[in-house]
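Suppose you are handed a protein chain with no further information: no name, no annotation, nothing but its sequence. What can you learn? This example shows the usual starting point.
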Amino acid sequence: MSGGKRMTAAVAALVAVAALLTGCSGDEAEDYVTFRFANSPTALSLVRIADELGYWKDAGVRPEYVGPATTVPATQLLSQGKVDIATGMQSDNITAYSKGVNGFTIIASSMLDLPEEPHMAYFVKAGSDISLTNLKAVEGRRIGVSGINSCTDLVIKRLLKKNGVDLSKVQFVELKNELVAPALEKGEIDLGVFHPPLVGVLLSQKAKFTQIATSFDDWGELGGQAPFKASNTWLKANPDAAREFVGIIAKTANWANEHPKESAEIAGKTTGYPVEQTTNWHYAPNALLDKASLNLWWDLVEEVGEVTPQWRSVTIEQMATNAYNPFAKTADLLESQTENKTIITAEQNSAILDSPLVQR
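A reasonable first move is to predict its three-dimensional structure. Written in structure tokens, the prediction is:
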């Protein structure tokens, strides 16, 4: 018994010496929180751009990349605790909350929309008679979208409806993102809806494809927010890590906006598309969330989408907060991004802000 105690003490002493020597060698202790991030390898991501910039390297919070389960919505995976942070269109978030799937909170903003950096762009085959001034020509034809009731589906539908197109005469074909361009080239669809980085790839192939419009033509600079949302379980266990995460996302968004060419090149590198051809999104400065770009989805889905019975019982204040953002003065959502045009370099608070949505 006493021998066992002496052995334990000896081992403890060796461990202590080893730790001291390690400290003297200059190696840093691996003390950080991980978050499982659901993201497709071919999708743009501020998380992965931050990785390329080295922002996670010495941070107290770092990503663990998890392949998305395509048949299971990210909102469900978050609520089930199978991933910790994800992005996704606001229409999916509203639908989830209206169905009682509310184990997540929206904590940071994502893309906006600019004419030169649109959220989405619409392409036809070169030589097609379909154009922004002749959208009626799409009647009786097929449009390729990556998801029904998603941004690729809803925004083009509203643009068509505004231009007098009878949506019942258009066939919407659901395809994986990477299959839309081949289908358009082969004539299997007549119009395709695309996100960056593929927008730039198609723009570089003018002999094959023609861009006829972008999402900016429908909703201006409001943009179709696909905000960052975190599992409430993870937020409760790691509040400080959540605040640091939002700060790094804000820093990355601001860098990308100031360096569109370089960020587009990183977008190409991280998604596997030709670097010289890719395009990136424009992001909400400082990752601050606002009501306008999130609330537009209620009207959009009711106009051309599919709503659940409890759709209107959900409000943005129930699911989104700036409480975890170090560049926010209050936890309240901004009214719109018109209040958020200047890049903020100094933190505006020293701790998580008070909000009913902060997980205690």
